[in-house]
Amino acid sequence: MEWLYVGFVAFILALLILDLGVFHRTAHVVSMREALTWSGIWISLGLAFAGFIYLGYEHHWLGLGTTVDTMTTPTMAADGTAIYNDGGSAAIKYLTGFLVEKSLAVDNIFVIAMIFGFFAVPPIYQHRVLFWGILGALVMRGVMIAVGAALITRFTWIIYVFGAFLIVTGLKMLLMRGGATNLDDNLAVRLVRRVLPVTERYHGERFFVRAGTPASHAPAVAGGAPEVDRVVDLAKRGALLATPLFLALVLVELTDLIFAVDSIPAIFAITTDPFLVFTSNIFAILGLRSLYFALAGMIDTFRYLKVALSVVLMVIGVKMMTHGWLKAWLGDHFNFYVLGVVAGIIATGVIASIATKPRAPAAA
Description:
This protein is mainly α. Helices cover 66% and strands 3% of the residues. The protein has a two-stranded antiparallel sheet. Strands 3-4 form a two-stranded antiparallel ribbon. The radius of gyration is 23 Å and the shape is globular.
């Protein structure tokens, strides 16, 4: 089983190296057409992986399907091995998890857009921040999934805690009002500023520079002290300085950590098979970078998407707490119905947002 994880991680790293080292080697502003193309590529890869999931679990490659899944009642094979997931059930769970995680990632995009706007990150540098931010997110989510799987295996009652948490989170998201945020008051930003001096202006794509390095012509970051580059240069020539791009990266990583606290329990509500949880989660956030550039300019259009996502979280939380009863009522393929309900809720939010979009006033 360990070789499956090694092979999957190697495959993902190869994709990321190809993405950054070949297709996005030079910094440039990502156009809408390019963003939509890459979003389609990443989503297609995630959907195509469902074929591997089906074959692997159907033929139980390297023990796939025999891992304990508390969301499934096992069947016994001829040799006495407990089978928790066959190809069909594993593919449905993977696709449901992929859809839920991809949908929650869209909410993450809204916060990232706010971070980039506050720090006035030039569009040409946003791709680099998102690449390293997603790379860090892959590591963090891998650790959180491993911890979550171990907790559920040892303490099965924690499933109900996760379910209640998702319901409360969905209600909170539904009732919470958005507003302007002063990121200078953020604890992570204040901690970085205390440990490292931060330059006022950007220095290309660099996260760190030495004092005295000429700044780029990019605008000063919001909240930056006036003439900070010149003052630090005179006081500590050659000292290591963080750039505003590093502050943006820190907050992007912190944002994903916060969202992972919601999304990891959501995927465990669908399946507790670690390989299904890990692969669906990773493929869902791989295309987050290109999806950001595709949707960042249309954030105001999807006004009801947050409402739909909050309902999805509550539905998944209820499913997590009543999975035994749902299976007895709907049968072994009840996860297929859950997939349909989640897809329907998200589609309703998108359609309602587009249908009620205010029209621009006609020209005189």
